[in-house]
Design goal:
mainly alpha
């Protein structure tokens, strides 16, 4: 692997790790464009497959901290992930069958839509005590299952973790607070990412040495992001709007390239 490619991969991994640690979700949507336009991965499918592996590893690292903090709703995560894995498997097969250039164009359009959705105000109603039980199942399952399936389809198709879709999906389905949605989403991101990564790896679309470099960069970026979380807390709204604008701009570039 050329030195320039290694340095670009380290920087890309660090950027994604920093965003994930600082904002809790959304960074993985930039991974595929970075691999194609910054690192120089020539195949869109290889970029998607490699991105899926890197996203899965990042999610597992982040999940450990949330599990220790008790901010994971495991039963809600399990149901959402089960439906999502089915969708991710189907989405990955559809994505591999699509022409690489068209896949990138659709990815760019998705990024624009996600960026616009990030600018919308969030619901204020919260239920920190929400739990999936025999009593609440009749209310929660009809919400969790279809949202999980739809999110999985998009995550598998584009090789993304889908945290930017999962977090609002969990909040819409259960009204859990953001801190629980962020922690719970990492279980689902890991499950969907692993499903997508397995599908692409079996087709030979994963660059394993590149995955290792991205993981090293991601760990460094995450460490910086965790240290900066407190400093960003008072400006979180402004930071999220800035990130949404970046996602829209990159999406427009990818769609028009």
């Amino acid at each position: 692997m050329p030195l320039a490619m290694i340095l670009a991969a380290l920087g890309s991994g660090a950027a994604i790790g920093l965003i994930l640690a600082g904002l809790g979700a959304g960074g993985s949507i930039l991974m595929t464009p970075l691999l194609v336009y910054a690192v120089g991965v020539s195949s869109a499918h290889a970029a998607v497959g490699t991105s899926a592996v890197a996203v899965t590893l990042n999610a597992l690292v982040g999940l450990a901290g949330h599990a220790r903090a008790g901010t994971v709703k495991w039963r809600c995560a399990g149901v959402f992930a089960a439906a999502g894995v089915i969708g991710a498997g189907l989405g990955a097969e559809l994505g591999k069958a699509l022409d690489g250039k068209r896949l990138l164009m659709l990815f760019g359009l998705l990024m624009i839509g996600v960026g616009l959705a990030m600018l919308r105000p969030r619901r204020s109603e919260e239920r920190a005590d929400v739990r999936l039980t025999m009593t609440s199942a009749s209310q929660l399952l009809p919400r969790l299952l279809p949202i999980g399936l739809g999110t999985g389809l998009l995550a598998g198709f584009f090789g993304i973790g889908g945290g930017f879709l999962i977090v609002p999906g969990l909040i819409a389905a259960t009204a859990m607070p953001m801190r629980f949605a962020s922690g719970t989403s990492l279980v689902i991101v890991a499950a969907l990412g692993a499903t997508t990564a397995t599908s692409y790896a079996l087709s030979g679309y994963v660059d394993w040495p590149l995955v290792g470099v991205l993981a090293i960069g991601g760990a460094a970026g995450a460490a910086l992001g965790i240290k900066g979380t407190a400093a960003l807390a008072s400006h979180r709204g402004m930071v999220e709007k800035g990130f949404a604008a970046l996602v829209i701009a990159v999406g427009a570039y990818v769609a028009l390239s």
